[in-house]
Specification:
This is Antitoxin. InterPro entries: Antitoxin_Phd/YefM (IPR006442), phD/YefM_antitoxin (IPR051405), YefM-like_sf (IPR036165). Pfam families: PhdYeFM_antitox. The protein has about 90 residues and is an alpha+beta fold. It has two domains: about 1-40, 3-Layer(aba) Sandwich (YefM-like fold); about 45-75. Helix content is about 60%, strand content about 15%. It has five helices and three strands. The radius of gyration is 20 Å and the shape is elongated. The mean pLDDT is about 90.
C-alpha cells in the first residue's frame, strides 16, 4: 500500500490512478491535519460494499458462515441448473 501526500497526489494524479487501476493497489492520500482518504479500484470497492451488505444482516451472515462451514466439511450437494427448476 502506497502513501502519498495531497500535494504529490495532485501533481501525479494520472500516475496514481494507473497504479490503483493496473496494479490493483490501494493508495492512501495523506491530508495534513485532516482525515486521510484511500483510493481503491472500483471492483474492489464494489466487492467491499457487497460483503458489507451480506454480512450486515445477522441471519444472512449466520447462513453464509454455516454454508462455508458445510463446504469446508464436504457437506455439499451438487445440482445442475435444470434440476433446480423441478
Amino acid at each position: 500500500m502506497q502513501v502519498v501526500s495531497m500535494t504529490e497526489a495532485r501533481n501525479s494524479f494520472k500516475s496514481i490512478f494507473d497504479t490503483v487501476y493496473h496494479d490493483n493497489e490501494e493508495v492512501i492520500i495523506h491530508r495534513k491535519g485532516r482525515e486521510n482518504v484511500v483510493m481503491i479500484p472500483l471492483d474492489e470497492y464494489n466487492a467491499l460494499k457487497e460483503t458489507s451488505y451480506l454480512l450486515g444482516n445477522q441471519k444472512n451472515a449466520e447462513h453464509l458462515f454455516e454454508s462455508i462451514e458445510q463446504l469446508r466439511n464436504g457437506k455439499i450437494v451438487t445440482k445442475k441448473i435444470v434440476d433446480l427448476s423441478e
